[in-house]
Amino acid sequence: MNQDWEDRVTAAWAAFDDYPQERAAQFRAVIDELVDELPEGSPLGPFEQACAWDSTGHSDRAAPLYRDALARGLSEVSGYKTRRAKIQLASSLRNIGQAAAGVELLTPELDAPSDELDDAVRACLALCLSSLGRDREGLSLVLGALAPHLPRYQRSMATYAKALRQG
To answer: Can you give the pTM of this predicted structure?
Structure first.
């Protein structure tokens, strides 16, 4: 879509916190109006709608929309939004009791080209693993993601993260 549309979507999301929970439907309606401007079959539509449902507490409604966006070729439109969709879908799956599917979806992202979403991948994957009783693996991911951001002890935390994976 064009930059004007993207800017209006960004503005809508910037105003998200202005909508109290009881006005969640109003926020989703704003997103729906923007989606209505898209060409038929655009993967951006179900992606934005999934985000809106997810952000207003409806993971069950969001998950099929994320899948639809990915199936429609979101990766051809935006690699960044594709990665976001995978992270958010995994989170939604975890919320609806399908954490194993979230692990399956996110594990390949550990080897994907690095970007600013790397830590989010690890955090969400850690939550999915924890939901499956695999807390050591999850903690390892979180420590590994945190280590580079620490002012000191980066090497120690990275070593502890590796030890958790091996032990």
So the answer is: 0.93
